[in-house]
Specification:
Strand order of the largest sheet: 2-1-4-5
Number of helices: 5
Number of strands: 8
Largest sheet: 4 strands, antiparallel
Radius of gyration: 17 Å
Bound molecules: adenosine-5'-diphosphate
Distance between the termini: 25 Å
Length: about 190
Amino acid sequence: MNEMPNVEILNVSKRYGNIVALDNVSLKINDKEYVCIIGPSGSGKSTLLKIIAGIIKPTEGSVIIDGVRVDDIPLSERGIGVVMQDILLFPNMNVRDNVSFPPLVKGLDYGTVKSIVSEIIRDLSLVTLAERYPDELSRGSQQKVAIARAVASGARLILMDEPMGSLDTRSSRILRYELRSLIKDLGLTAIHV
Ligand code: ADP
């Protein structure tokens, strides 16, 4: 296999004063891989994800995405979809409008947005919830919508920080399965803490 790695983390360290959050981490994630990062609380998983996203800067080391060193490129220009633990859906918009928002803001025409959004909503089994508002959804469904919105943004790399943290085992297993097939179908790369 000589595919170009989609994400390359090179000797990344992050220190907060005396606290070492990450110590010289190097990792290659290939295009279309679905990678899970596991480890005990406090082991630096979120820190690593935030460094890849560009939310925080490493003390040392570099992040390379699709062959480009992105150390000085902000989150908004990295083409990454991020799903964090605290779900931030627009409360005044229904599910379909929440998911449609990023591609519309990017300037895609309405017809294209409609078909992209319908496909994502179908693949994540959100069809019956499409007209509901966030406060009418379970926590698990809200998480799915946040993921659908990240996928709809057109990002080829999706970062998820414990998106199933608050789900019971069964719901989380189902969501993981749906998510994996969606990411595979769309040919995306995902990093999941
Ligand atoms: P995980 O996601 O694996 O639970 P984190 O990446 O959140 O771990 O944290 C790694 C370490 O860095 C922990 O010891 C945490 O207390 C510390 N840390 C994270 N963010 C900060 C911060 N803003 N200031 C100081 N210490 C931090």
